[in-house]
Amino acid sequence: RAGVNMATLTDVLLVTANVGSLFDNIGDIQRDWLQELYKTIQSHKPQFIALHFQEVGGKDYMVNMSHAENFFWDIESSAEMKDYDRVCVYVDADFQAEDSFTALGSMYFIHNTLKNIYQYDFQDEDYKAVSGHSRHVASLNGITTVEKEKFPKNFWPDFKWSRKGFMRTRWIIHNHLTCCPHLFLDLVNIHLFHDASNLIACNSSPSIYSANRKNALRYVINRISDARHPPAPFFLFGDFNFRLDALSLVQEQHLSTSADVQTVKNDNSNEVRIICEERDNDHQVLLHIEEKLFTYLHQAVFREDNGRALLKYDKEVSAFYDVIREENIQFPPSYPYSEEYSQPTQYMNTRCPAWCDRVLMSQTVQKFIHKKEDDDDGKKVVYNTVGPNVCMGDHKPVFLFFSFKTNEGKHLAIKDFTHHLCVLA
C-alpha cells in the first residue's frame, strides 16, 4: 500500500467470547449473537480472523455439547464467511476426559486475498501451508497443530478443579515469507479462574482469587516461552476473569462520608452480608454484597464514560507489564451482563462488573501493529466489544482489530525461514 514505507499491511481481527450463555439458552440469543459477530467482520473486513471461545457447551456441557458442532458449523458455512477459503477449527469437546477437558474452542479464517499462510506443527517442528477446511471437534489428542493444557489439579487444592486452561496455535500470517524474524506468532486461547465468592474477594487486596489468576497467567506465559519450541511473539486473548479490586472499591468508590459499611451475620444460617447504607436519607442501601450477590445502587457508574472512573481498580494485568501490553480500554466492563433479551446493557446483580474478557499481546508484537497516520491508507486500531446494545449473554465478546505491519524483504524457502527464526529468536 502507498505511503507505508515499503511495508505490507495485513488486516487482522481477534475476537474472544465466553459462549456459555449461548448453550445454556439454546436459540434464545444465538441468532442475534451471530449477526453481531458478522456485522463486526463486515465492518472491518479483516483478511485473517481468530475466534477464541470459552465455556463451549455451557455449564451443562454434558447435555449441551452435542450442539457445539452445529454452532461452529453454522459460522463456518455461513454466507457471511464465504470469502474465507481456508478455515481451521479446534474444539475441545471431549468432556469425558476429565483430566484434560477445557471446553475451549478456536476458529481461524483466512481470506482468499491472503496467500501462503503457514501453521506450525508442534510435533514436526515445521511450518506447513494451510489449505482448505480443517475441523477438529471432539478430542484434540494427536492433533499436532494445536497445543492444549488444563491447569494442573494440584495448583490450588483448596478450590474446586474446573475446566480452566489454555490452547495455542502458531502462525505465519503474511502474504509471503520474508527475512523478518517477527512474522510468526502464537495465538493463545485462555480461560482463568473466577471469583467463587464476592465476600472472600472483599477480604484482602489483592484477593486470593487474583493471586491464583496471577500464578496461572505466569504459568501460561512460561509454558509458551519455554525451550520446547523457538520463542514467538504472542497474543493472549480469552476470559482472564480479571476482577476489580473489590476491597478498595468498597472502601473508596462512591461511598459518601455519611454512609456506614457493616458486616452482618445471620445467626440461623451463618450467612454473611456486607451492607453499606446512608446514615440519613432513610438509611438507603448503597451497596449490598453476599457470596453471589453484588447490588450497587449507582450501577450506571459502570456504563457512564465506559466505566472509566473504575479503571483504577482494574489492577491484575499490571503485574505482567514486563512482558505484556494492551490497547487502551474504552468500553464498559464485559461481564456480567443480563441474560434477559430485553436488557442488553444491564448488568446482573451477581458479581461486580469487570473487564474479564481481554486481548493482551507480548511487547514484541506491539511494535508491528500499524498505527494509522494522516498520510497513509492504513486502518485504525479498534479495541471494543461486539454487540454492545444487543443481548450477547453474560459476557460481551471483545475484539481487537489492527493491521499487522511487516517489511518487504528477500524471499526464503520455508525450511530456511524456520532455521532463520531459530537463530534470531
TrEMBL record:
InterPro entries: Endo/exonu/phosph_ase_sf, INPP5A, IPPc. Pfam families: Exo_endo_phos2. Residues 8-410 form the Inositol polyphosphate-related phosphatase domain. SUPFAM superfamilies: DNase I-like. It is an enzyme of class 3 (hydrolase). SMART domains: IPPc (SM00128). GO terms for biological process: phosphatidylinositol dephosphorylation. GO terms for molecular function: inositol-polyphosphate 5-phosphatase activity. Its EC number is 3.1.3.56. PANTHER family: INOSITOL-POLYPHOSPHATE 5-PHOSPHATASE, TYPE I INOSITOL-1,4,5-TRISPHOSPHATE 5-PHOSPHATASE. Belongs to the inositol 1,4,5-trisphosphate 5-phosphatase type I family. This is inositol-polyphosphate 5-phosphatase.
